[in-house]
Structures are given as structure tokens and as C-alpha cells.
Amino acid sequence: MTDGPKFMPAPETERAAKRLGRYVGWSRGFWLGYVFTISPPQAHILQDRLRERGAELRILRPQTPVELASLIDDILGAKYEGCTWIEAIRNSSTAASYDALTWQDGWAQFTLRLNERREAARELLVGGLVLAAHPSIKPIVRVAGPDLWSIRSFVFELPAGPQGPGVREQSGLLESENASRQRGAPPDSELLDQEARLLQQLQRDPSSMQDPEGHVRALLQLGQRLDAAGRWDQALEATREAVVVCRQFADEQPDVFLPKLAEALDSLGLVLSELGRREEALAATEEAVHIRRELVEARPDAFLPGLAGALNNLGNRLSELGRREEALAATEEAVTVYRELAEARPDASFPDLAGALNNLGNRLNDLGRREEALAAADEAVTVYRELADARPDAFLPDLAMALTNFGNRLGKLGRREEALAATDEAVRIRRELAKARPDAFRPHLAGALNSHGTMLNDLGRREEALPVTEEAVTMYRELAESRPDAFLPDLARALNNLGNRLGALGRREEALTATDEAVQVHRELAKARLDAFRPELAGALNNLGIRLSELGREADALAATEEAVSVYRELAKARPDAFLPGLAMSLATLGVAQRDQPELSAKTFAEGLRLLIPLFEQYERAFAPLLESMVAGLAETCRAGQLEIPEDLQPLVEARLSALSQDQQTD
Amino acid sequence: MTDTSADEDFLRTFFQNISDQPLEPDDPRYVPIYAGPTASKADPVQRLARGMQWRWFESVQLFSGFRGTGKSTELRRLRRLLESHGYKVVLCDMKRYLNLSTPIDISDFLISIAGALSDALAQDSDLAGEDVAKRGYWQRAVDLMTRTKVELEPLQLSASAGAASASLKIGLHQDPSFREQLQARMKGHLGALVDDVRAFMIDCVKAVQRKHGEDTKLVVLFDSIEQIRGSSVNDAQVFESVQTLFEGHSDKLRFQGMHVIYTVPPWLKIRAPGVINLYDNFFLLPCIKIRERDGTVCDAGVEVLGKIVAARGDSTRLFAERADFDHVLAETGGYLRDLFRALQGLMMNAADQASLPVDREAIDFELSELRNHYVPISLQDARWLAKVAHSHEAELPEHDEIPNLSRYFDTHLLLCYRNGDEWYDLHPLIRDTVERLASREPDEDRS
């Protein structure tokens, strides 16, 4: 037998272990504790400490959610004097395909049943019970077992491992006025650790505050490096500390510390955003913009670039929260400022202008202004390509990002071959980047794969599209496992696409499983951030309706699609440009789901067509497939129900059917 | 600083006395919380008892309480008080009979309460004895189904009458599909079922009177019904079903000659305010009030909490100053279980540091640990909770939101107090978090 790897306990784990030991020693009769961690080794340290104290321990590690859900009978079968430890430190959204239960479901069911049988638990588990789970399970067990939660003795939230923030005292580190992401060679991890330790020592030394400016600079530098290394939790710690110190000195020395505070807040917004903490990110970025506007009033030359950067960031943060119009306004203002700056100093401002243009394309697309979005994305690619030609190490990642977005914009306008070429190039660039720096670029590669899979599918290359999308899902699942806040939305999107890919290949049960999981994740996300995630929830529900309908589960399909229509209807009321296409699409799905009721179905198709016609007239290539399927659906429904096609739609239906018939003869 | 074993012994004993469990009124740790002016001007136990004593024939009262407010302890006090007045009291823990996570229906509810009562009578031969207990309601219900040709597969497959009644009991408790079948098939026979249950209840009352004298009153406390709640999948249906049960079928829950108390979820009154008029009394057990609505300290509440702790250990050895103790009382909001958790944490902290009394840093640390139990709080929740903090009303936007409101009560994000009227407030530990989160969402984005 060989020893497994040894893990260092984090200070929190040591504290928890000591506390747990006392619970075991002091408690008489049943007690209940929760341990939340992403790191099983940290939980195992607690177990080791208990054993060292001579505690009798029964550890149960269910391998599937189903096994977890059915553990109750095992643990309540007989009285147990020792401590019972149930451990399933698995991410909530990880579904075991063979039983279609997620860990979230497994914990919910287990907790629900234990909650009902808590009196039996009190009688039988006299040495205490510990439930060890992933942190994302905490809200689940609170709600599923409120009685149990109410009688908890302790909750330990353990970190992943020992932490060591800090930075080298000074080392030609980067200083950013506009808080845009720094590119270049990745920081050396060993040196970064040393720097972190050094800064930690400095922080403990009161004399370090004799040079607060240097202290802030070091903290910001460290934060940016950690950020670049993908060590966002540590980056957050360093950046927060920088904000605190800046605030402390901003009144006393505003000339020095107000710009620094704005910079620190910019960085803080970026790091919080990376961590998926969007509201906090927005608050930090808004404050940064506010400070920078004040600074610009006094010294525009010095502070305009910073303001443009902060506005650009603000657009991103607002967009992340689904506040599209405000996001567009902020990004437009950023582009305007950068254009002015680029006229005076093209070399210095071109990269920032390209970034802002790329974002402008995204913001316009979010509002359904697709031609304008394409123009902005095109300009961004052009600028980045020039920059990448000159300095590939610095600008290839940006070029790949711009290419992905450009491809998406082309795809939205029906220019699919061009779109595929763009996303293919983006994947190639990102695969190379991810090979070199997996931590920093795997999320980007996953995003590029997701887009590329869509493009391949749209071109009818379905067999090729599936593995590409599967790779994206696998990658996002791994990423979301360790950082659910940041990557669950991406995982949900990729799952939704995977459902589409499988559905297109006729693998209907698998398609349903993927789409259902996408809906579940979106629903959870929408609970927390309605504005940001409702549109995607609506889209996933629409697809779920299609998947269910394909399997003949008409009633379920109808329910899902009706919910999609209802959500889109509300969204389109507020933002018709962005959401009328979605509403029309969901009405088409609903029309199909209502096929047993021809009159209702015809009415639904007709409503969808009337909404779609103006869009089709404007963007024919983008909406032709949907229009044709709706025309066919309406015609078929009317024929089946012996109904007249509504008068206003007759010319269109006849023209499209006739064109379709001619195409088929030609083929 | 201290490291003596005497201190360790003191801390361990105090810790063990703080354990959270329902107390009998004669337990030395028992403190009459609700008898004074601290939570309200009314002692719930006296009120409920009077609700029976002042009604000659029968009564139906609803009793509600939030987790950890001492509801089970108060029910035990009620039982003791009524027994001292010559009542025969049966406490039925309905979580042993009902499936608390699926929708409930009047038919399976009636069978379950009658079955629970018959089991309780069978277990205590001193209560009723005779054949009421011997035959039990489960067999009677199977007979009714046979008579009315309600065919349920598990019952038909049972080899004997005894097995069929056992299947019925287990099916109702553990098999949602069986319950669904039963609910569906009893729909056309509800009248017959109501008659049958009523007849059984009357038999029980008569049996008790035959054994103990005809002036003896039977009181049945149906406990744990307030714990019915669904999962994320079915919570709306479960809440709807509980409302329908208590609002739409109140007449069927009243039994001749019998005093009955049902424990019900706290949200029922909010969702269906008219429900209180359908019963003889509705009493909701609030938290111990440590602050008034306007934020001023409620001395009486602080005093009673002090007594509760004093009955379990010497807090003056644990805290350097009374102000520190008061701070812990204030931050735990009169919610006893959190007060106990905080105190236990502090005792462990003192033992860890070998330092008695605990200092303010230790207190802040333990309260901060406790605060972490309540986070994360979603923005959506924070917005609602902030409104409640402002108005002290439930701020229920739609009935569809009852599951959320229930969740706030269940998880103690919201606490309930009373000054005549009930009012709500945030748990003090989450106040800052809620305010911070709620302030982040601009008005124009609210829907």
C-alpha cells in the first residue's frame, strides 16, 4: 500500500479541525455539522485529525447522486456510536448521464429525506453527523432541509489549500491607467509565489505604510499578475487591499491616490467579473468611472485614456448584467474617446480602440442592430490583425477573440461560410494559446469551440460539429467544477448547443438530456440574475420544447414552449429589436407543439409570421430558414384543420411555397 | 488568560447545557418565555388552553411557529397544563404519517390523522383501551375502500386485512404515487370518508369518556403539519394544497366532542388571511423580541434571554462585560438557536485560546462565522428582504411568491415578532449584507 499525496492544511482547515475535535469531545448525543469545500483533501485533513484524537469514524462516499439520495436507509439502519461522515464534494451541476440526476438533485433528495427523518437521526446517530459537500450545495441543503439546517452545530467552509498572497517589492511591473488586460508572457508561477510571500511580510510590517504609494503599486502589480495567471481569488485579495489603502490616503493626498483608487477599482471590477461576481464588479467599475470623470475635468490630457478604458469596462459590466442600452451608451462613449485619442497618438491608442470596437459590435448585436454590429466587429478584426502581425505574442489572443465575434456577427446575418472561416481561424489560434497557457486560455478555447460548432452545424456539417461542441462542454464542465460562478453560464450555453447538435443527428434522448441540463442551469442562474439570464433561459426552454416534441412528449413540450413564449413576450415588449426574433422563433416552436389543436396552432404561426416579416424584409438571409419553416407550419396546420390561411398572409405563403416547390424540383 | 482544567470543565458543562432540545416544563433549564410581556402580551399556552376551556363541546385551533422559537417545548407545556386540568391529551407527530414533501389532499389527510390517533390510543392503553384502539383506523379505512369499491393495487395485493392496513399506512407516508392514486380515487367518495372519519373520532371520544368519566375531554395535538413543504419542482402545488386543505375544508377538520390543535405553516395566514376566521383560534409563536419596531431595545426580551442562558450556565464567567453579552443577544435577534450556536462557538473559542472571559475580537469572529451560514443571499432575495426591513410587513408581491417567503422564514433570514400585530424583521446578522446588495440594483431595472 502506498501513501497518497500529502496536502497542506489551510489555516481555516486547521481551525476547523480543532473545533471539530472539540465537538466530538464535548457533545453528548446527536450533533450535525456541514463542511463545504471544493477540495476533498482539505476535508480529509479534518477526518485525519478526528482519527488522531481517537474518534470512531464511519465515512460514506457515494459515487453517484442516486447512491447519495438513497443513503438514508444505510445510515439510519442501526444505532451508530461513532461519527458518521457523508462526503460528496462534487459540483452541483455535474450530471451522471446514466441516471440523469445531478449532484444538486442527489443532495436535495438526501437532505429532504433526512429532514423528514431527523428524529430517527437524533436517536441513531449519537456520535454526530457531518455532511461534506461542494460550496454550491450550501443553498440547496439550506432550503431542502430547513429543520436540519436549523439545528446545525457548525458550518465549516474550507478553502482549496494554503494561500499565499504577496509580491516582489518592485520589478518593472506593469502599471495600467485604463485597466485593460495585460498581455504577454505569463508570469512565472514560482516567482509569483515569492512575490506574494514578500508582500504578505510587508503587510505585517507597520513600516510599509511609510510608503503607501509603493505599497499600493506593489499590490496592484501583484493583482494584475495573479489575474494574468488565472489565480483570481488571490488577485482579488491583493486588489481589494490596494483599494483599501487608496481610500485611506485619498483625502490626504488626492493627486496621488485618487487616480490610483480609480485604477484599483478598475482592476477590482475586472477580477470580480472574472469571478462571476457581477454586481460587485459593476459597483467597482461605476465608482472608477465616476472618479475618472472628475479627474478628466481637471486634467483631460492626462486622464482621458483612463476614462475611455473605464467606460469600456463599464459597458462590459453593464452588459454582463443584461443592461443593454446602458452598456451600449458606455461603450459608444469609450469608442468616441479612443477615436479622438487615436487621431493624436495612433500607436498608443489603436489597441484600445480595437478592443472598444469589438465590444461595440457585441453591444449592438445584443440590441439586434446587426449590420452596425458587423461593421464594428470587422473594423476590430482589421485593427487587431495589423497589431498581431507586428506583435503576435501581445495581440494574437485579441485577434482570436475579435475573429470569434466577427464570425458570430456574420452568422447572424446569414453569411455562414465567411463566419465559419473566421471561427475556424479563432479556434486554431486559441488552441495554440491554450497549449502554452492552459489556465489562462482554456476558457477562451472553449468559447471558440462553442462558436465554431455552431458554425459547422449551420453549414450542414453536423457530424463535424458534434465533437467540437462536445469538447467545449467537457472543457466548460471542468472549468465550472472549480469555479461555478464564472463558468456555469458558459456551460449552460454549451449544453444548449450540444442538445442542438445531438438533436440534428437524431440522437434524441441524449439531446433531451443535454438541453434539460441547460435549462436547469439557466433557471438557477436566472433566479439570481434575472435580467442577465432570462433571454438565455427562454432560448433553452424553446429548445427543450423541441427536444420533448421530437420524443413525442407533447404535453411537456407544450409547457416548456409556452414558458419560452411567455418569457420572450415580456422581453420583446421592453426590447423589441433584440427579442422579437426570439419571440417569433418560440412561436414557431409553439405552433408545432399545438398541432393537435389546428385553430390554435394556425393562430400561433400567424402571429409569429407577422412579427417575423419585417425582420425578414430587413435581414433576408438571417431569417429565411425560420420564415420558411413557419410558412410550411402554417400551411400544414391549415390543411390538416381545413382552415383558411389568414388573408394578410396568403400572398407570402403562396410565394414561399411556390419557391420551395421549384427548388425541390431543381434539386 | 486561563488554562485551568476548572475552566475547561466549566466551558464543557455550559456547552452541554446549551444543547438544543425541547424541554419539559419541570426541567431546571426551562424558562417560561411566553408567560410574560416579552414576546407578546399573551401566553400562547394559556390562550390555547383557554380556547378549549371556554368552549364546552369541541374546538379547533391552529398553532404556528417558526423553527427554533420553542414551539415543541410550548406544546409540551400545553399538554402538561391540560392534563393538570383533567384533559386527556394525545400528541400525534404527523411527520410519521404524512409525506411532507408532496401535495396533500383532504382525503389522505383525514385518513392520516385518524390513523395517527388510533396508533396513539393503541400505544397507551390507559387512554382509551377497548376495541377502538384494537381495531384501529387503518383497518377501518381499508374496509371503507372495499365498501365503496375504491381499488388500490397495493391494498388488493395484500394477503390479509392486516397487511392491507399496513400497506395503506406505509403507502400514505412513503409512496407519493400511492397517495396520488388514493387522492384520485377517493374524489367521488369524499362524503363517505368524512362520515367515516367523524364516526371514528366520535368513537374515540366516547371510549375515553367510558374509561375516564363522561366529563373527560379528549384533546388531540396534531404536530409537525407546519413542516409540509415541496421541493423546487413542486413547491407551488404543495403550498396550494395546504391552503386548500385548511381554507377549503375547515368544516371537515372539526370533530364532535374533541378539542383539536393543528400546527400549520406560518405563511398560511399571510397567504390566506381569512383562514383565521374559519377556526376558533390562530396563534403564531414569535421570536423573543429584543428590539421594538423602531429599533429601541426591548428590555423585557433581553431580560428573558438572560434568564434562559442563566438557567444553563454562568454567562458572567464567559463575558467580560454585560455589554458583550447584550451584543451577542442583539445580533442573534431573539432566535434562540442562533444564540445557542453563538454561545457554543464562544465557549469553544475560549477553550481554544485558553482565555476566559472571551474578548470582543472573539465575539466578532464567532458572530461573523455565524453570519457566513446565511450567505450567499441572491440579489432578488436581498431586494425583497430590504423592503421587509423597511416596512416590517411581509411585502408579498404575488401569491406565487409564497414559497420564497416560506424559505425566508424557514432559513431565518426573516424573523417574526409581535406587538399585538405580528411584524417581521431581518435577522440582525444579515442586515448589512442585505442593505449592501439591495442598494446595488437601480430602480429602473426593477420589475
Please sum up the structure shown.
With about 675 residues, chain A is mainly α. Chain A has helices at about 10-25, 40-50, 65-70, 70-75, 105-115, 120-125, 140-145, 145-150, 190-205, 210-230, 230-250, 255-275, 280-300, 300-320, 325-345, 345-365, 370-390, 390-410, 415-435, 440-460, 460-480, 485-505, 510-530, 530-550, 555-575, 575-595, 600-620, 620-640, 650-665; strands at about 30-35, 55-60, 85-90, 95, 100, 130-135, 155-160. Mean pLDDT of chain A is about 80; it is low at about 1-10, about 90-100 and about 160-185.
- What's the helix count of chain B? 19
What is the helix fraction of residues of chain B, given as a range?
40-55%
- Determine the N-to-C terminus distance of chain B: 56 Å
Tell me which protein chains meet in the greatest interface and how many residues each side has.
Answer: A-B, 38 and 39 residues
The major sheet of chain A is characterized as: 5 strands, parallel
Low-confidence stretches of chain A: 1-8, 92-99, 161-186
How much is the radius of gyration of chain A in Å? 28 Å
Indicate the mean pLDDT of chain A: 81
Q: Distance between the terminal alpha carbons of chain A, to the nearest Å? A: 68 Å
Extract low-pLDDT stretches of chain B: 441-447
Order of helices and strands of chain B: HHEHEHHHHHHEHEHEHHHHHHHEEH
Question: Total number of β-strand segments of chain A?
Answer: 7
Structure description:
- The complex is a heterodimer of chains A (667) and B (447).
- Chain A is mainly alpha-helical.
- Chain A has helices at residues 11-26, 40-52, 65-69, 72-75, 103-116, 118-124, 138-144, 146-150, 189-204, 212-228, 232-250, 254-274, 278-298, 300-320, 324-344, 346-366, 370-390, 392-412, 416-436, 438-458, 462-482, 484-504, 508-528, 530-550, 554-574, 576-593, 598-618, 620-640, 650-666; strands at 32-37, 57-60, 83-88, 95-96, 101-102, 129-133, 154-158.
- Chain A has a five-stranded parallel β-sheet, covered by helices on one side. A two-stranded antiparallel sheet of chain A has the order 4-5.
- Chain A is flat, with a radius of gyration of 28 Å.
- Chain B has 447 residues and is α/β, with parallel strands linked by helices.
- Helix content of chain B is 52%, strand content 9%.
- Chain B has a five-stranded parallel β-sheet, with helices on both faces. In chain B, strands 6-7 form a two-stranded antiparallel sheet.
- Chain A binds chain B through residues 18-19, 22-23, 25-29, 108, 112, 116, 119, 138-139, 142-144, 146-147, 149-155, 157, 279-280, 282-283, 323, 527-531, and chain B through 12, 15-16, 19-20, 67-68, 93, 95, 99-101, 227, 229, 231-232, 337, 341, 344-345, 348, 351-352, 369, 372-373, 376, 378-380, 407, 410-412, 437, 440-441, 445, 447.
